[in-house]
From TrEMBL:
Pfam families according to UniProt: FtsX
Span of domain ABC3 transporter permease C-terminal: 261-366, 650-764
Record's GO cellular component terms: plasma membrane
Record key words, sorted: Cell membrane, Membrane, Transmembrane, Transmembrane helix
Keyword Cell membrane annotated: yes
InterPro entries found in the cross-reference section: ABC3_permease_C, Membrane_comp_ABC_pdt
Keyword match Acetylation: no
Membrane-crossing segments per the record: 254-278, 310-328, 348-366, 422-442, 650-671, 698-724, 744-765
Protein name: Putative ABC transport system permease protein
Location relative to the cell: Cell membrane
Domain of life: Bacteria
Amino acid sequence: MKLLLNLVRKDFKRNRVITTALAVFLILSALLMAGGLRVTGTMISSLNGLNELAVPPEYLQMHKGTYDREAFESFVETHDYIKDSQIVKMLNISNANIIYQGETLEKYLMDNGFVVQNERFDFLLNMDNEIAFLQEGEIGVPVYYVEELGIQVGDVITLHQGDYRKELIVSTIIRDASMNAALASSKRLLISQTDIDEISLHMGEWEYCFEFLLENGTATAVLEKDYMDAGMPSNGATVTGSLLRMLNNLSHGLVAFIIIAISILLIMIAVLCLSYIIRATMAEENYTIGEMKAIGFPRKAIAKLYQMKYIMLVLVAGVIGYLAAIPFGDFFSSSVIMYCGYGTDEWMKWVFPFIGVILLSVIVMLRCHKIIGRNLNSTVVGLMRGEEKIEKEGHYSLPSSGLKHPNLTIAFGELKCKWKEYLVIFLVFVFSSFLILLPMNMKSTVENPSFMTYMGVGESDIRIDIQYSEKLAEQKDAAQSYLENDAEIDKYAIYQNGYVQLQNADGEWEYIRVENGDASVFPLEYLQGRAPNDRKEMALSYLSASELRKEVGDSLTVIYQGEELLFTLCGIYQDITYGGKTAKAAIDFAEIDVEVYIIYLNVRDGVRIEEKTDELRSILTDSKITPISEFVSQTLGGIMDNMSLVEGTAIMISLLLIMLITVMILQLITAREHSAIAIKKAIGFSNRDIRIQFGIRILMIQFVAIFAGTVLANFLGEVIFGWMLSSMGVSKITMLVEPITAYLLSPAVQLLVVLITVIVGTKVVRNYHIRNQIIE
């Protein structure tokens, strides 16, 4: 064993650059695999812990207006599958009446409801994940506003309307299992019972949340149908436990998914490099291996000798990667910890990475064993003659007309006949380019205003929400009257939303949200088919059509106000709002059944969207007016922040990979071509010429690889991103690439890194001379 370790130590010294580069590859692979799994373990633990302590409802129905409490209690008593229930009062206050640091929250999308602590379940927790209780004059603010506004404990929130003014001191930050995610459009602020009683006398509108816990095995769809059939209060949004989990998983799980995806690509790169290095190293040592076989060394002993080096490398890389993954994973887990706490199953963040590192080590060791075993199959004579090396040597012919551009001609000739040697570096360059562009393109897609089309509507400038009010029709008419006479408005469309019953694939009736409005004003791109043209056609969101197992041309039976309506499915579109389950049809809802009016509008050329938004806010005070760019950024803000972190990390890792693989390949190729380099010098080529030839080879490979990586990122990236968003209702997504960054800056940086590395890495050619070859 001591002899083996000495031989390994000497090999490390002899091939320091290659060994170091390979070690870095393996360490990065282990780091990203363990880091991604640590983020995953932390996320699962945090979300589970928050849900265990806060006990969020499995079904939540919001309602504005009056209701019959006795009817609600009777409904609960007559349905055995309801485990527990409660009615939560929430005082909704306009963002224009909430002031922080001298500014209102009017430009923010979220609806803000003031509540007191619940008694039975759906608790609001403090930052220690304990049920929060406040004194008079105090307020608990959601984590969302800590990140968006920088609100901290000790700050003052002011409520102001007319002559009334109320100051509340932030005493705690709130974790809300029901409304944590930025994708949830409502946020709850916790205050005392005394304060809410006082404030409600001067401002705000009461909204009620009817919340339910269900017995194990009961589907929320069963409760939803019974609830709606019984005519229970439903003038507001519906939220299910599965939707809450999806929103939280998407907000926090995207980072873990991308990191693990990068680590898998990196493992592939590491295995490719490992295969190449083992083959190249053993090819150079064929004579030595032949000698060992000739004097009686067993095949197993020779294999053990060569495997020892890589086993040691893998073990060291695994330990370093696992330890480095602790701060790495914690950095990328900071968001989920901020929103959800550390959780109750912290063992996950230690065990998951350990399992990942073990799997990585096993994969690499098995690959080493296979490659080394294959290389030891040659006969003693074949090894000592170097027959395999001779067979693989390539040749090329110089042009008979002479060398007009000698460096270019020779570089392309060597590249042509020795292309197999460069296959690994080509694939690494492709993967690196892909790693840079994938998160970059994802981020630019989400930030692009056209991403609005994945929310079920065409692209527009401004969105007006008229929500759940007893004066809903009056507010809509007032908004329509103003927009009709505003010369700065180019076009607008009003859409009403309500619920109907639709028969699912099992023949059961369930409720679905339907939008009615002129689809031609802001046209939407359909996956299949088109928008409804008449009252006999209906379009479904992708997720609804998938669950109902419906295709374009199929019939749909709908019940509204006790009447059966027959529709033909005319189109399928993508929508990530309302859990991805919506429909579009020309159903004239009675005013009492309209849940919300949404108005989309475009301003004329030259009109500033921000100024028009402020003007509309000052006139339509009862409506929520949001520029579409803000709507997308606020809805997906947390996701975009996380993706920015991943994008930066991917760029740094990819550039490091490019540099390492270039150094490693140059080291191996210059060592193998030392005699060719010496001969070139002898016939008149300078060191500069030979270095230029190497540079042309590597840069040409990278140029082609960048092109391949870009194509891969655009096409395969769309598939990956669509798969990630498929649970929200998106099956096919078009990458909205920022061309200057993706097609100009990114390739330029990659080429520059390689150029600098080639300049430094080819200095070794100065050491090769023809006299050394003659002596050998």
